Amino acid sequence: MHYRDEGKRRGETILLLHGSNASLHTWEPWVEILGDEYRVVTLDLPGHGLTGAVPDKDYTTGAQLKVLGAVVEHLALPDFILGGNSMGGGVSWRYALSHHNKVKALILIDAVGLPEWQHAAGKKNTPLVFKLMAQSWFRLIAVKLDSYYLVKWGVEAAYNNSPVVTDELIMRYYELLLRRGTRHAAVTRYSSIEQSNGVTYDLSKITQPALILWGEEDSFVPLETAHRFTKVMPNTRLVTFAGVGHIPMEEAPEKSAKSVLKFLQEVLPYNQE
After folding, report:
1. Using alpha carbons only, what angle is made at residue 154 by residues 151 and 158, rounded to the nearest 5 degrees?
2. What percent of the chain has pLDDT over 70?
3. Nearest in space to 96 (alpha carbons), one of 229, 243, 216
């Protein structure tokens, strides 16, 4: 398991989970800003980054929750602030729902919501590359193709064609995807993405303070989902960013990180030395 433990050693701990096909690198701009006041833990979830493929090939949300629990236990964290982007946001709110004693505050950044929300939102604005990945016939082809252009199209869509998208950024995603087993892991995730396994969630029971951050131009998880979170969760604050896509922590790092600092100073005012 690849993780980083950075920032202020004696500060409150913020643990951050990346989205699908991303890695802990996505949090580097935030670590630089938040690390002055907080201990920041980031990790590569199974099938991602330098953690890569895992022997049991289980990349479901349930498996990710177990990994998160193992990291929390390994670091002996009594409690912490939990945040996640996209898929990582979906893991985060599920963990917060069942670990009220552990999660002091929750930060959801363009997070995946309930499966039925995704269906209700429809897929008319979903980028073509992700519509293709939703098709089983295309996934069979994708594992055998050079994925550079799929990666390029996906990154450009996720970042809303932001100036932060450089050749270096695209190559980072591409090279990590070339690690043994990682492409198959991605295909496996897409194959199970629609499955809820009959589990239901009552988000109104997430009573911890929650900050909802959203890019207004997100074509993956629409802004409507942010409003759904605020309607059902009782203790939320919503901040949106004009002209920003699915990755606010990289597209608008200073604005989004400052929103986090303001939120935490309000809900957890005593960040002990």
Report:
1. 135
2. 85
3. 229
Q: What is the mean pLDDT of residues 176-194?
A: 78
pLDDT tens profile 73-117: 999 999 999 999 999 999 999 999 999 999 999 999 999 998 777
Domains of the chain (ranges; CATH) run 3-267 (3.40.50.1820)
Residue 115, pLDDT score: 78
Q: Which two tokens stand for residue 110?
A: 């363009």
For the purposes of burial, counting CB atoms within 10 Å of the CB of 13, is it exposed (0-12), middle (13-18) or buried (19 or more)? buried
Among 254, 213, 240, CA closest to 30:
254
Instruction: Say whether pLDDT at 135 is over 80.
Output: no
pTM: 0.91
Q: ∠ CA(205), CA(77), CA(10), 5° rounding?
A: 120
Q: What angle do CA 151, 155, 157 make, to 5 degrees?
A: 120
Q: Is residue 119 predicted with pLDDT exceeding 90?
A: no
pLDDT at 130: 62
DSSP the chain: --EEEEE-TTSPEEEEE--TT--GGGGHHHHHHHTTTSEEEEE--TTSTTT---TT---SHHHHHHHHHHHHHHTT-SSEEEEEETHHHHHHHHHHHH-TTTEEEEEEES----HHHHHHH-STTS-HHHHHHTSHHHHHHHTTS--HHHHHHHHHHHTTT-TT--HHHHHHHHHHHTSTTHHHHHHHHHHHTT--TT----GGG--S-EEEEEETT-SSS-HHHHHHHHHHSSSEEEEEETT--S-HHHHSHHHHHHHHHHHHHHHS-----
Query: Which residues are bridge partners to 240 per DSSP?
Result: 214
